[in-house]
């Protein structure tokens, strides 16, 4: 059974709402045969990443960059996963109050180095996530999970 790994840093109510919407999309009953595993960015291991077939990444944009927690996750998994995870699909959702461009560039740089395939447009939200924002998060989760269906 294909596995979708959600690596997230969820320190705020806004990130929690986005995370829940992504999970709801990824676990929609119409998506069959995909196991969804959730790991906090500070707890994820290279074994978790190697065991997964695709990834969803969630982070706040802090001071113009991804959270330290997500950067730590990449630091832990980068070299152990470098050659074994190429071509796997991923998606990204992020929240920022002052802009998300730097965080997007950072994640793009690292995932390009890993050879991961961007499965959908990034979901970037500023301020309180509205209904449309949460629906877009749901769609992101569903899109990446659907790509893993056998």
Automatic annotation (TrEMBL):
InterPro entries: Flavoprotein-like_sf, FMN_Rdtase-like_dom
Pfam families recorded: FMN_red (PF03358)
SUPFAM superfamilies linked: Flavoproteins
Domain NADPH-dependent FMN reductase-like, first and last residues per copy: 43-126
Gene3D superfamilies named among the record's database cross-references: 3.40.50.360
Name of the protein described by the UniProt record: Flavodoxin family protein
